[in-house]
Amino acid sequence: MRIAQSIAQVRQLVREARSAGKSIGLVPTMGYLHDGHLALLKAAKTGTDFVVVSIFVNPTQFGPNEDFENYPRDVARDETLLQDGGCDVLFLPSVEEMYPKPLATTVELAGLGQTLCGASRPTHFRGVTTVVSKLLHITMPDKAYFGQKDGQQALLIQRMVFDLNIPSEIVTVPTVREADGLAKSSRNVYLTDEERPHATVLYKALQEAKQTLMEGVRSGTSIAEEMRQRIANEPMVVLDYAEVVSRDTLEPLEKLEGPIMLAVAAFVGKARLIDNVQLTLVGDDVIEG
Amino acid sequence: MRIAQSIAQVRQLVREARSAGKSIGLVPTMGYLHDGHLALLKAAKTGTDFVVVSIFVNPTQFGPNEDFENYPRDVARDETLLQDGGCDVLFLPSVEEMYPKPLATTVELAGLGQTLCGASRPTHFRGVTTVVSKLLHITMPDKAYFGQKDGQQALLIQRMVFDLNIPSEIVTVPTVREADGLAKSSRNVYLTDEERPHATVLYKALQEAKQTLMEGVRSGTSIAEEMRQRIANEPMVVLDYAEVVSRDTLEPLEKLEGPIMLAVAAFVGKARLIDNVQLTLVGDDVIEG
Fold first, then answer.
1. pTM of the entire structure?
2. A135/A195 same-domain check
3. By residue range, what is the domain housing residue A52?
4. On chain B, which terminus has fewer CB atoms closer than 10 Å, C or N?
5. pLDDT single digits (tens) B26-66
């Protein structure tokens, strides 16, 4: 595995791989890798010939009172995991390399980026879509891989690539979970032993909502309310939101049909956790994905 | 010359040229071509091996009361001019091809896009930078060519490409002028015979301001005011703005030094005309460009 710290270096390595006829895969991460990231790497290894994993804790997607400074980092461990996973290039730029002067340009999905997590984190998705567009331009991958756990993020990036004709395919990889259902996340490290068992309530609320859908209920407001109560009643957990939205508009739906997302977010101690389930409703049928 | 009406078609033609080892040049236009556009084509022919000219009257860069519907169009004449000029591909997409569904994504330079022309046309540059990013993604040129006449536009696009790491070089080509100095523009067709002689006041005001700079004056406010009075006093001409700005921030400067732009805009009858001069001030020296 090669490590590139500069944009020029990673571009050179990608150019060499392209010249050798290889297709390029990109896995953008903020590091502190877990099994969810390794599933992205595995999917990229399967789907493309030459895989670049980027590790960049992007300051512009953190709000002023969020955890940028304290976001967990362990590059030495990440390097070993990537090496073992068959990553070809680790792109590890500094903040100065990515932002040599203050950005005048933003790439934004104003409507879709202000709902759900965007309501609690108003500048978050602008930072995400802008930095992802930079990473796509730097590596020009055939395919880029994102986790379904960050459901709104993946949908925004898909829409950005469609709207702007960016010549990369966005692949979404299913959420990897702990044995009790908790979605793997770098931020799970913030959970104390006491808090940890309660964090599964996000997964449980989603599963119960899915069960309600399978029983034939099609009211978005009643299912959202069921999830809210389930989460709000859990000790040590503070609800941020629980919504049932259209996967196209990300707006809450009353009459449920077609491609939907059940999306939840809650604070458990210092950790803000998110999770979601994506379903397609066709008549009485509830189809995964 | 090939004509591509779909994105898939132009991409295929570019891919074939790339496979043959050719470098790609892009000249984005709104058609109704004049000598200014042909200078862009010529520069692209010199700088790259395979030139795509796009003609697309982009609705998103026109305000609600602007001239989108009446913008001059003559595709048959444009085709002949491009054929004669040695263009390889004319990309001629429909509005539906470029915007198959309403855009959720915008690419914006909020600060730099709200001054000068952006003050009079608040959504204009958002439309420009978004559609140019689409055209760059569609054709992935080595170099893209823009006229210096649209000075703010060229600076915004250069900054966008820098900020987002878009792998294309932006080349600015000097303004082509009529014998009396009026900058060539598709919108000059709006001028009546009576109005036409007065339209040269933009050029004259810029040249007089440049002369004042060469005499050693370095006050931005006094030079801007001199240009404003010169334009406002011309019959049949209504001043929009006249400013002396930093080429980096596009903000008006008081003490003039380094790379600056003298920029003017005025209404002459139905036509809104713009013009500019780019200079670099080093001590007593006034350097073109």
1. 0.97
2. no
3. 2-173
4. C
5. 999 999 999 999 999 999 999 999 999 999 999 999 999 99
